Amino acid sequence: MTTEPAKAVAACGGEFWQEGRDGLLQRLGATPGGLSDVEATERLKCFGPNLAVTSLRRGVSFKIAKRLMEPLIAILLIAALISGATGDWQSLIIIVLIVLASIALDVFQETQAENAVDALRRTVAVQVTVLRCGRLIEVPVREAVPGDVVALHTGDLIPADGLILESHDALADEAALTGEPFPVEKLAAPENSAGDGTASALFGGTSLVGGEVRMLVAATGAQTRLGSISRSMQASEPPTAFERGVHGLGILILRLTGFLVLFVLLTQLVRHGLSIESFLFAVALAVGLTPELLPVVMTVTLARGAMRMAQRQVVVKRLSAINDLGAMDVLCTDKTGTLTEARIAHVGSFDCDGFESSRVTELACLNSRFCSGLRNNLDTALLANSEGDDKTWRALADLPFDFQRRRSSVLVARGDERVMIVKGAPEGLLDLCDSLEREDGTVEKLDDAQRGKLLTLFEAKGAQGLRLLGIAQRPMPPGTHDLSRDDEAGLVFAGCAAFIDPPKASAGVAARQLAAAGVRVKVISGDAAPVVRHLAETLALPARGLMTGDEIAVLGDAALAARVRDVDLFARIAPEQKARLVLALRRAGHTVGFIGDGINDAPAIHAADVGLSVEGGTEVAREAAAIVLLAPDLRVLAQGIAEGRRTYANIMKYVRMGTSSNFGNMLSMALASMVLPFLPLNPLQILINNMLYDLSEVGIPFDEADPADLAKPQHWDMHAVLRFTLVMGPLSSVFDVATFAVLLGVFGAGTETFRTAWFVESILTQILVIFVIRTAAPCWRSRPHRFLVMTSLGALAAALILALTPLGHPFGFVALPVPLLLAILVIAALYLGLAEILKPLAMRAEGKRRRGRTRHSEARRFRAF
């Protein structure tokens, strides 16, 4: 027998349960008695080992090369080489160490994320029992092949995807794949026709929690559902909002640097001809525009944010995710575990008229207490609140639950009274009843009209998100001590016990907090539409619209991206559709977070800008996530978002200060080089100015953020940064030109005096303006962190000591007369005052640009990558 037909079937995967038992056996070339050892060996060679996850890890050299291609890193390395060429070996060493530390941290974080793939390998059993040559033997899971017949018992993990040939009261826990807490009944597949949905299918990575089955293996390894999830996690996901922002900043600095360098070289060529000194001056300008400390500022800011978030029960695994969390404007979440308690609770019982009934609850608890056999989570929920039940009843006999009858019965006695109590699926139980019990205890004949009313009642309760368990009873003759299945007839229908996965008391409040913070909550669930809609109504979620998995399946990617913006509830969503929804939202320009706890959530977690899981989630979900919540509570997430926005605000302070101040400073020197017979600063003085200014900003990560920065999602917007730079940078250049005029026209300064005076004016205005532009509020109303005050004033003091004392003579500095120093102070004061006046214009322009263009520009950048 050749294995090629079987390989073709297994390789295509798909909905194998629709072929029916005989059809699948034929196409796999298998029999219910299993394979021979020779056939199994041949198929193992053909299909390969049953490993749902194969390692596709990139080498360290590839990861390093990828980061070296980022514009910002390339600029820093070029700046380091230039510093070395000009003799500034200290700057070269510092920049190279910063870059290497940043790359090492990123590589380490990526390696941690790849551990998610390793976690998948640990979700399957080590050994499995298979039929080989007509006998049951134990083989390693990796040796199971399509066509094998596997014997599984309660507690076993499912080793592969397959079709059930025999089933005895089987229950499967598929929560890891579906996220739903209820065990799923599993039935044997029909011989000559397709089964009822996936009721006859089992999937690798899930477990059998009740009964026994024999399963025909239909797909192994990468062809299973677990394997498809693994492949999606190993795929290259689009860059996150943080990565796009850093990339955009690098491109912006590269453009500004190129403009200034070419401008200076051109003017020097026209006026003096190209010389070594003018070339070194131009490259020093390039270094001056380079934010050498940006990796340090970002790392320290993010690390400080991670420490503060840890105090709020949020563990950050990937530091850049903090920024993405602050930029997040859409949060996708399953309902189970985050919006609900992820446990089954008995919420009451109702009679045939729909009224609350303690009588029905009493009957249900008696059945659950005395019935033997498999006890499910519905029984557990009933008995959790049955301490006050009547203890005078005793059990005489019972008929345990089985999936053919779909009910359980007990015979209880109290004195000479005998009553049979039956519970099961309401619709099926109703077919065994010929009477119903009213609220006052009277019994009436059950006619067709009454049946119709009861079925309507069941449907209405189901639309409220309730799971129902029908309760019926029948008085038995005195002296009865046994039960048979024939006794389960002529019953009196009493009502139903109602169960629910209860909503979390905090979920509604947390969702409204997120909405107030500009984060839209979208519920993605495998439940039916009425259940999802009822949950949203119960929690008072500010939700719009509803889509089902069937509607999503017929939409292309572009159409889906257009639809998902205005829809907040998604029902009957297949596991593979979750990641598609996340990517559609990202294509629509949103920064998306996804919170999940199951294996099926891992691809969506991986695809999101911010992947989140909870401490009680599966290991795969936790490993795929960048952030883990120690408490599955959205209120904790709301606090984490505030921290993310705080870190973003501080990073942007450095970006705005660095680009605007450096650009203004370098522009001033470029302009001065056009009219001065000498360079306004020598290359070494430019590098000293840049180094001291960067050191003054080391305290930024510890600074507080304005309330406005915490109120809404914050997105990287290089248009806004450029606008700020073009407003505040030239402003400083105007006062630099005024300084040039005063130095030359009033004081007649020589070369060394000019350079010293302008160095003092430049470093004075650069550092002090930090306290002006660090906040959108008036600077006297927003107090900076004391560490920022220390680093800024400390760097300023060092600069003044170096420039105005004999320590600066080796660097070309000379002492300045007092009148000249007073003139510099007046110019600096005027500059700071005007900067405070113009600051609202620059920042208002930034906010307007962010609100108007962020989403569209993000969408374009997403597609560009």
Detailed description of the structure:
- By secondary structure, this protein is α/β, with parallel strands linked by helices.
- It is 52% helix and 16% strand.
- The protein is built from 31 helices and 23 strands.
- α5 packs antiparallel against α6, α9 (241-271) runs antiparallel to α10 (276-288) and α20 packs across α21 (575-587).
- The radius of gyration is 36 Å and the shape is elongated.
Helix content: 40-55%
Low-confidence stretches: 5-12, 120-125, 845-865
- The first-to-last residue Cα distance is 49 Å
Radius of gyration: 36 Å
Q: How much of the sequence is in beta strands? A: 15-25%
Q: Kindly state the mean pLDDT as a whole number? A: 79
Number of DSSP strands? Answer: 23
Instruction: Give a short account of the largest sheet.
Output: 8 strands, mixed
Alpha-beta classification: alpha/beta
Shape: elongated
How many helices?
Answer: 31
Strand order of the main beta sheet, please? 8-23-22-21-9-18-20-19
